[in-house]
Amino acid sequence: MTKTISGFSKLSKSKKIDWIVNTYFSNKEAAKTILEQYWNNDKKLQQLHDEFIENTITNYYLPLGVAPNFLINGKPYTIPMAIEESSVVAAASKAAKFWFDRGGFKTKVISTTKIGQVHFMYHGDDFNKLQEFFNSVKPKLIEDTTSITKNMEARGGGILDIELRDKTQSINGYYQLHATFETLDAMGANFINSCLEQFAKTFKNEASNFNLFSVEEKHIEIVMSILSNYVPDCLVRAEVNCKVEDLTENDSVSPEEFATKFIQAVNIAEIEPYRAVTHNKGIMNGIDAVVLATGNDFRAIEAGVHAYASRNGSYSSLTHAKVENGVFTFWMEIPLALGTVGGLTGLHPLVKLALELLGKPSAKELMQIVAVAGLAQNFAALRSLTTTGIQEGHMKMHLMNILNQCNANDNEKSTLIEHFKTNTVTHSAVVEAIEKLRK
Ligand SMILES: CC(C)(COP(=O)([O-])OP(=O)([O-])OC[C@H]1O[C@@H](n2cnc3c(N)ncnc32)[C@H](O)[C@@H]1OP(=O)([O-])[O-])[C@@H](O)C(=O)NCCC(=O)NCCSC(=O)C[C@@](C)(O)CC(=O)[O-]
Ligand SMILES: NC(=O)C1=CN([C@@H]2O[C@H](COP(=O)(O)OP(=O)(O)OC[C@H]3O[C@@H](n4cnc5c(N)ncnc54)[C@H](O)[C@@H]3O)[C@@H](O)[C@H]2O)C=CC1
């Protein structure tokens, strides 16, 4: 049977499912049952989810957890986290609790500028002439976007500037309109892209009538108009600090030794890309989970953050740590273009709930919360890595997943949870213990 189809997008949801199960599954009924099991009984709610994307066949659940006890600039928060990986929420919660008693997290939004570019080809050899044309047309570029920018300007945002950039050193004939924007509480992708497409239209039209251009020069080719997800000027800083002597909770490691090893671990991630990638993955455990829970675009955040981590030519740690005058400081500055309006934020009921849980933050406040979740996660991971090792805590949290894989019943679960309080969790140890129990 052929495994391709034309016109799939035009089929109804049930016809799409029929084609999928008939084409790809041996047990068609079982496949259909799983897909239908995840539908919501509330038809309106299901339709809302069906319409978020295209060719929807069912819902894909991720758990929504919460990490309480975050103190950020003196304000308490419970942070929502949507994530599939065990131990992330526990780690965030543990770090929150630890820093709650040590002054909490201090954060600051450094800047909020977003970027968009019109990429174009100009076939002339006189850059000055192109610059002259750009200077003459710049007011019109802005004027022609009035209908798009009116409301954003009324709120205090809009287009900040447009520059002409010469990129011919890299590609023959390649130039850019490099524009900066303030999009306030919106992530801004649609706003920026609409402005850019209008710039491109006006720029091309005006060039065709610019008297100083030759016939060839008049023919500007627009390649594309798109925002950039690299936003090094949409930056937030999150920090924790305390006296070194306050760093520990138990006697297993001295505070000085803890601080030294912790800083060594950060220094290694600063200079060693193999470690930096894993180190930053741990930071993104926290960041992505809050970004997802608040309905933001995690691909945009991921791309922008990793580009920032490579900004000095080598992939490096996003966090830094030091001890100065007996004070331990651990901090991070990262770019986060987030929205609390637009996109899914006003549509998905759980996203609305997550934002309400956070006290309906502005985009700037959300930047600070998300950065804190990343810093907390990294603190928890580094603390485990440099003391007990990661597996102890991680596997303790992962135990339930292994028990579920083994189809453990409630009795078996409680017996084995008790057993593994004093025994090391590994996959084989759990399987062995469950087999023993069932004999
Ligand atoms: C896992 C813990 C927290 C255990 O830590 P613990 O000390 O065994 O936990 P505890 O049972 O003593 O509880 C202390 C607190 O931890 C939290 N906590 C504890 N258990 C739970 C739970 N079940 N549900 C919710 N919260 C939990 C909670 O805040 C709790 O306080 P309480 O609520 O009791 O007042 C610790 O070992 C830890 O932080 N480990 C780090 C885990 C981690 O980073 N996981 C991420 C996945 S690994 C990875 O992807 C990234 C990595 C590590 O590769 C990055 C890198 O290399 O840098
Ligand atoms: N490369 C990328 O990152 C791309 C991302 N996207 C998607 O675009 C979406 C985000 O685009 P947006 O323009 O942010 O969303 P959106 O198109 O839903 O619009 C947000 C709009 O809300 C209005 N608004 C109301 N109150 C506001 C306030 N206080 N501050 C600012 N604006 C306010 C403004 O008109 C603003 O343009 C996301 O779903 C993202 O996945 C789309 C294309 C490319």
TrEMBL record:
It catalyses: (R)-mevalonate + 2 NAD(+) + CoA = (3S)-3-hydroxy-3-methylglutaryl-CoA + 2 NADH + 2 H(+). InterPro entries: HMG_CoA_Rdtase, HMG_CoA_Rdtase_bac-typ, HMG_CoA_Rdtase_cat_sf, HMG_CoA_Rdtase_NAD(P)-bd_sf, HMG_CoA_Rdtase_sub-bd_dom_sf. The keyword ATP-binding does not apply. Keywords: NAD, Oxidoreductase. One of its GO terms (biological process) is coenzyme A metabolic process. The keyword Acetylation does not apply. Pfam families: HMG-CoA_red. Its EC number is 1.1.1.88. One of its GO terms (molecular function) is hydroxymethylglutaryl-CoA reductase (NADH) activity. Pathway: Metabolic intermediate metabolism; (R)-mevalonate degradation; (S)-3-hydroxy-3-methylglutaryl-CoA from (R)-mevalonate: step 1/1. Belongs to the HMG-CoA reductase family. This is 3-hydroxy-3-methylglutaryl coenzyme A reductase. It comes from Ichthyenterobacterium magnum.
